[in-house]
Amino acid sequence: NTMTNRLSPRTVAALNHLRRLKPLDGYAAESYSYFGKSLIRLKRRNIPLKDEGFLDICLINSRVIGIQILTSSGSVGRGVVLVKEDGTPCTRDDSPITVNMADALTATNNSASAGASSTRRNSSSSAAAYNAQPTNPLSNIDNENLVQYGIMGLAALVLLKLVANALSNLAFLLLPLLYFYASGNCPSSESFDAKKELKRVMRGAHLPEEQQPKGWLEQKLNRLAASVSTELATSLGYEVRMTDYFGVARLSAVKVPVAGCEFYWIGIINRWQYIGQRELRTNND
Predict the structure, then answer these.
(1) Distance (Å, rounded) from C-alpha 133 to C-alpha 124?
(2) Dist. CA 192–CA 99, nearest whole Å
(3) What is the pLDDT of residues 257-283, one digit of tens each?
(4) Is 33 exposed, middle or buried (0-12, 13-18, 19+ CB in 10 A)?
(5) β-strand pairing of 63-70 with 76-83
(6) Does residue 134 register a pLDDT over 50?
(7) How far is CA 70 from CA 10, 106, 242, in A?
(8) How many CB atoms lie within 10 A of CB 86?
(9) Residue 141 has pLDDT above 60, yes or no
C-alpha cells in the first residue's frame, strides 16, 4: 500500500468543519493507495475511526460520512456516518445510508491545498503528541509507590521463608510422635487373613467405584464368583510371608502357585491395604 497526500475538496471541507467544531480532538485524514484504488482514512488523535478506508469523506447535513460505494456517474453514494452532528465519533451504528453527493460541501482548490498541508501538519503533531504521552517520566509519587511495592514483595518472601522454616521444624518435632503413633497402631501378623483379603481382591474391592458392580444381584454374583475363585486358587496351598519395617508397618506377600501370582498388602495404622500383584515365573521362562 502506498501513502499519498491527495485529499478531495469534499474531504478537506469535512476536515475544516471538524476542526472548527472540535479543535482539540486532532481530526486528520490520510489518503493511500490500496491495490490501485485510492482510499481515505479519517483519524482522531492519530487513531483511525474505522479500520477500513473510504472512497471519499463528505460533510452532509453537519454529519461526516465515509463513502463506500459510488454510482458510475458519481452522483449518488452509499456509506456510513463517521462523526455525528455534535462532533463526536459514531462508533456503534454502522448502518449504511444513501446520500446525494451534490449535497456534500466542498472546499476551493486553494483551501484544498491548504487543508492537505494542514492535514499533514496536524497529523504529524497529533501523532507526536499522542506518542509522547506514554513516555512521560514517573512522578515522585509513582516512584514511592514502586519502592513500597518492592518492599512489600520482599517482606512477603521473607515471611514465606519463615513460615516454611517453622513448618519444617514442626514436622521435625512431630516426627517422633508420628513414629510412636504408627508403631502403637501397627497391625499384627495374626490379624492378616489371607483368604479374606484374596476374596476382596477377586471381587474388585480395590477398584474405583465406577468399576464396581451395580445392583444387588450383580453384587451377590460377584461375591459368589470371588469366593469360588479364591477357594479354587488356594485349594492346593498358598504361602504367606511377612516383612516388618521398624515396627511401624508390615508387608504381607501371599504366593498362590495355582493362580501364578503373588499378591501384596501393606499393614499400617490398624489397616491392611492391597497394593498390587505380580506374576510368578515358571520353570519354562
Answers:
(1) 14
(2) 95
(3) 888 899 999 999 888 999 888 888 765
(4) middle
(5) antiparallel
(6) no
(7) 14, 17, 95
(8) 9
(9) no
Residue type, 96: P
248 contacts 270 by C-beta, under 8 angstroms: no
Helix, coil or strand: residue 126: helix
Q: Count of alpha carbons within 13 Å of 180, Cβ hemisphere only?
A: 4
d(CA 153, CA 214): 55
Cell triple for 157: 518472601
Instruction: Return the biggest CA–CA distance within the chain.
Output: 115
**For the chain, percent helix, then strand, then coil, each to nearest 5?**
45, 25, 30
Q: Which residues pair with 96 in a beta bridge?
A: none
- The number of residues making up the chain comes to 285
Q: Name which of 19, 226, 33, 193 is nearest 123 in CA terms.
A: 19
Q: What sign results for the dihedral spanned by CA atoms 130, 123, 20, 54?
A: negative
Q: Can you read off the three cell numbers belonging to residue 44? A: 482522531
Predicted TM-score (pTM) of the model is 0.39
- What is the DSSP pairing of strand 239-245 with strand 2-4? unpaired
Alpha-carbon distance of 133 to 123, in angstroms, equals 15
Q: Are the CB atoms for 60 and 99 separated by under 8 Å? A: yes
- Give the C-alpha separation, 97 to 66, whole Å: 10
Burial, 270: exposed, middle or buried (Cβ in 10 Å; 0-12, 13-18, 19+)?
A: exposed
Look at residues 4, 1, 33 and name the one whose alpha carbon lies nearest to residue 116. Answer: 4
Q: Name the residue with cell 488356594.
A: 234
Distances (CA, A) of 230 to 153, 197, 220, 223, 262: 62, 10, 15, 11, 13
Backbone angles phi, psi at 115, to 5 degrees: -65, -40
Reference 242, options 189, 201, 194; nearest CA is 189
